[in-house]
Amino acid sequence: MNICVYGAASDNIHAEYLAAGEELGRLMAEKGHRLIFGGGASGLMGAVARGVYAGGGEMVSVVPSFFNVDGVLFAHSNELVYTETMRERKRIMEERSDAFIVTPGGIGTYDEFFEMFTLLTLGRHQKPIVILNTRGYFDAMREMLDKTVREGFMTETKRNMVSFFDTPDALLDSLTV
Fold first, then answer.
1. pLDDT > 90 in the chain, percent
2. Of 15, 30, 77, 87, which residue is least crowded by CB atoms under 10 Å?
3. Residue 89 forms beta bridges with which residues?
């Protein structure tokens, strides 16, 4: 399965996030999944890529050409796809993926998640979206989505299109069921 992973580019985060990212990548490789990601060498992007690489897995980096500066890109991708814009990057990542994993991150990660979630609720794709909730990072977002249902802005059926998991192994098991 080709799995797109979204996540932080920052290394200025708790070590547990990075460890969970590396474990996720290692397990993806072990289970024969290919990583589709933003190509970064740092943060959770880099951690997942290191795990995939250490496990002998394959990965595709999709990066806008303006990111091509020393030290920014993960050096061991099997395929490197350059784009002109961030929008083109997101489109290619979506097209090449069979599922989406959201790991902790900032505004870029939120943007990627909410775009894919919106498209899923509108029936524009049927690819699973799962969230790795390391250290309870996404607890507030889960509560926000639940409140969105309680207040009538979204149906429970649509809310349940996204699942949260505390560990990489449980998350990946959910994709293979």
1. 93
2. 15
3. none
Cα-Cα-Cα-Cα torsion 144, 149, 155, 161, nearest 10 degrees, comes to 30
Name residue 79's beta-bridge partners.
60
What's the alpha-carbon Rg for the chain, to the nearest Å?
Answer: 15
Statement: residue 118 has pLDDT above 90: yes
pLDDT tens track for 63-101: 988 876 667 889 899 999 999 999 999 999 999 999 999
d(Cα 140, Cα 25) in Å, to the nearest integer?
A: 25
Determine the Cα–Cα distance for residues 151 and 120; give it in Å rounded to an integer: 21
Q: Which residues pair with 59 in a beta bridge?
A: 35
Residues 148, 177: Cα–Cα separation, whole Å: 28
Q: Distances from the Cα of 58 to the Cαs of 61, 133, 135, in angstroms? A: 10, 24, 27
